[in-house]
Amino acid sequence: MTWWAAVLGFVGALAGSWGGQLIASRREDRRWDRERDREEVRWQRERNRLDDQRRHEFQLDWRERKLAAFGDFLAGLDQALSAAMHARETALEKIGFVYVYGPKELTHDEIVENLKSGSARMSGESGELLSLSLKIGI
Q: 132 is in which domain, residue-wise?
């Protein structure tokens, strides 16, 4: 009976050791899985944050480019309109029309009086083009 007790004790110790290792191994595998999942979530959050940051920087850059392009367009348009107005005024002056620039408060009689007094062009505070063109005799 002592042999059987010794063999049973040895087998029990061996089975307990293997069982303990198996339980510890499973526990360690679950811990690794949880840690891996946490790391994956953390990396996904970091990727999302970087994607959002890049998207925001791209939108800011795109906005700046659109504003610069629109500003260039408006500057070109202003130059073209100024050149067209100058060419129109020059052509109209050659045939005897004079455009009068001045504040909108001037009346028709005041404009005619200023033109008769020798001022072919008037510059006022507002500098807006009046919709008046007069045929003057040269």
A: 96-138
Q: What is the pLDDT of residue 132?
A: 43
Q: How far apart are CA 126 and CA 103, in angstroms?
A: 5
Residue 106 per-residue DSSP state: -
Task: Let me know whether 108 and 78 are in one domain.
Answer: no
DSSP states along 25-94:
HHHHHHHHHHHHHHHHHHHHHHHHHHHHHHHHHHHHHHHHHHHHHHHHHHHHHHHHHHHHHHHHHHHHHH
Please indicate, yes or no, whether the overall pTM of this predicted structure exceeds 0.70: no
Q: How many domains is the chain built from?
A: 2
Residue 90 lies in a domain: no
Residue 85 pLDDT grade (very low, low, confident, very high; cuts 50, 70, 90): confident
